[in-house]
Design a protein that fits this description.
homodimer; about 325 residues; alpha/beta; Rossmann fold; seven-stranded parallel sheet; three-stranded mixed sheet
Chain lengths: ~325, ~325
């Protein structure tokens, strides 16, 4: 089978491709080709299947048509401008996150002729906007407080309608905040959730800008890849017309994160976290969802990490070859 | 003040214009000009203010720019392809209902320069899709089962984001099913809700294609005009970032409708209703919302008809000059 991945150079995209390169199959079927697209050249880990790579603005006219011309069996659509940039650049955010996705959906429609691929779309819990109930249920409404969340919510609606029309067979998955994000600390407001685990494990100091009571919703990169694999192979009939799902996650407080770190890497690791409240970040984070009751996805077989310690262990195994530096 | 109305030749549009022509003011401010747009020439009832009329496909490139060039103070955006046509013609529905609305929003953004009109958008309870709770609350999610509902839900999301960005000051109002719709019976699946009142009052036979236990959510044309007037003058600060509201309505069963008809026009009127179940219509209607808990709109001062009898009386007063023909 032929799989197209947009945003294939991103963190989740790379890990998804690595997993398929290792497995060689998706569900029961052997992978014969992967087409990888991004704005920079996506890596192509050694695999038994062939790769095609493509580098462009995927929202530019004609790009989606090129990517779908070979009728990939499965499309994993991860490409997006991130939240902060979509907020800073109104036009770019709508151009890529909305118009780009629309162009992809329309390119599939234009093929017609019975072509109806499985399409997995990475949505976000940013479709929700405060105030929230204690736990956000599967039927809570979407009132995003960012343009990014608005764009994701629009694409979810289109995904359901195009699926209902038989144009493709879509599944939208709202990913929790990915933790532990590998790589360098970045300027994302959510960065500290990962920084306070990743940096101490590497023997580096890091700053915690919010109170330890802050609660949030997490999945490891490994769990996120598992969500995509399951969404790509799930029987669509089990979903009915409600095609967008909040993925299961682990809710943890920042204090709970630090406890897990201590348990795995000792007090010394936790001492590398300097607590310095940043009121700006604290205010942003205050508007974010804390926890979900993601019952439907769990019933459909999507599996979260068992607990926050497992999230830390996954990072140590997948990114640090099992070695803690502290 | 200058008011722009799109879809001004439609039933609700015409009644809104008539009301302003009669009142001469919107809230505290005198109306000095109304610009009326539709695909056919909208009527211009005698008024103390001036009219400009415009006939075109408002979603065509450049149209929204022309309509907003004079910077109307209030924009009432009613133009839309109706549900049945948007379902039958995928491209036309998305072109007018989504792209047209986006073009209007973008035309306002392009003016910039501090221009920030109040924008009232007529949305629909079609943003909701079965299965429903017993009464649909204000925070129930949007899973439309038609392209029309999808398009309305997308425009609601954009309205909130553009408002949050300060581009305009939007209020989206989800209208109940309008009853009694004046005019001839039409082929809309919902037509019978009005037909079974309007036709007997005019001494005409009519067919009821569903069970008398069917429950639905109604507002008179008069109440709908009241919703628009209130949405056009409401203090935006009271709304916060959640800009789209389910309008209050009257829930009534078809049996309750018939009881009201009997009470007002006698058994003879009710005898003009021939009960002939149409399984196709019955199935469509089965997927529609029954009742709402539209608490937020009521708290914000939107007022429904007091009961279904008032809806019948409003029709007799406004459309039949007080005279029943049966």
């Amino acid at each position: 089978m032929h799989i197209l991945v947009t945003g294939a150079a991103g963190m989740v995209g790379r890990k998804f491709v690595e997993r398929l390169a290792r497995d060689g199959h998706l569900g029961e079927r052997a992978v014969t080709k992967m087409t990888l697209h991004d704005v920079v050249l996506p890596p192509t880990p050694p695999a038994a299947f062939v790769y095609a790579t493509s580098v462009s603005d995927f929202a530019a006219p004609g790009e989606a048509e090129k990517l779908t011309a070979e009728r990939p069996d499965v499309i994993v659509h991860l490409a997006a401008i991130v939240s902060g940039e979509a907020e800073a650049d109104f036009e770019k955010g709508y151009h890529v996150n909305r118009d780009g996705t629309q162009a992809l959906f329309e390119a599939i429609r234009a093929i017609g002729d019975g072509y109806c691929p499985r399409l997995v779309f990475s949505s976000s819990i940013a479709v929700f906007g405060a105030p929230f109930p204690e736990a956000i249920g599967d039927d809570f409404f979407h009132t995003p407080l960012t343009s990014y969340g608005t764009q994701k919510a629009i694409c979810e609606l289109l995904l359901s309608d195009y699926t209902r029309r038989g144009i493709f067979d879509g599944v939208g998955i709202r990913l929790p905040t990915i933790c532990v994000r590998p790589g360098k600390p970045n300027k994302a407001a959510s960065g500290f959730f990962s920084n306070i685990i990743r940096e101490p494990l590497a023997g580096q100091e890091t700053v915690l800008p919010v109170d330890t009571s802050v609660r949030h919703w997490f999945a490891s990169p490994r769990a996120a890849v598992g969500f995509i694999l399951h969404a790509a192979t799930l029987d669509g009939a089990r979903l009915g017309p409600r095609r967008n799902l909040t993925m299961p996650g682990i809710d943890a407080t920042v204090g709970g994160e630090i406890d897990a770190l201590k348990k795995i890497a000792g007090e010394k690791a936790a001492k590398l976290i300097r607590h310095e409240i940043d009121p700006t970040i604290a205010k942003i984070v205050d508007g974010w969802p804390r926890t979900f009751d993601a019952r439907r996805a769990a019933e459909l077989g999507f599996t979260a990490d068992p607990d926050f310690e497992s999230i830390v262990h996954a990072h140590i195994e997948d990114e640090l070859a099992g070695k803690i530096a502290v």
